[in-house]
Amino acid sequence: MNGVEMSNDSVIWDIHSGRKNLTSIKSIELKSSIFHIHKNQLEDKHDIIDKVSTIKDKTDTLFICKEEKNSFPEGGLRGWLAVFASFIGMVASYGTMYAPGVIENYIKENQLNDTSSFEIGWIFSLYIFICFITFILGGTLFDNFGFKKPILIGTIIHVGSLFSLANCRELWQFILGYSILGGFGNGILIPCLISIPSQYFNRKRALAISIASIGGSIGGIIIPILLRKFFSMHRLNQLDYGFIWGIRTWAFLDLVLLLLALMSGQSRIIKENVKDSNIPSWKYYCKILLIDGFDYKGLKDVRYVFCVIATIFTEVSLKAAVTYLGSYCTSKDISNSNAYLIITIVSITGIPGRYITGYLADKFGRYNITILYTLFLTLLMLVDWFPFGTNLTNLYVIISIYGFLSSGAYTMLPVCCGQVTTTDKFAVRYSTMYFIIGFVQLGTIPGTGAIIGWGEKTHYQYYVLFCGLCSFLSLVFFIIARYCSVKFKLVKF
Question: Which residues span the membrane (predicted)?
Answer without folding.
Answer: 79-100, 120-142, 172-194, 206-227, 247-265, 304-327, 339-357, 369-388, 394-413, 434-454, 460-484
